[in-house]
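debug: dumping io for the single-chain case to check the tokenizer round-trip. Nothing else runs in this session.
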Amino acid sequence: EVQLVESGGGLVHPGGSLRLSCAASGFTFDDYAMTWFRQAPGKGLEWVSTISWNGDYTYYADSMKGRFAISRDNAKNTLYLQMNSLKPEDTAVYYCNRVNTPAPWGKGTLVTVST
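debug: decoded output
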């Protein structure tokens, strides 16, 4: 069974950091580029970042450049998102998925940036 499980979210103050993880199973992880998305309360799904299958290439939405870092460990079938200098507008549920051939969506992990 193809499965994606996000974790690592929580409540953080503005300017703080969090590291999200996405554990993948049921498919050959390093066959796929991977992407992080997010959905803020009352808004649609927003693309955050993408990483190539081997980690050599990374791409970010403009508002995340310089603050977020995507990475992966193919030996552990895990995708990561290091988030620094967090802002209240980063509050959202964060999801991961494969590029081009999406897997069933996980439950996501909630990130709340607030004082």
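debug: round-trip ok. The mean pLDDT is 97.
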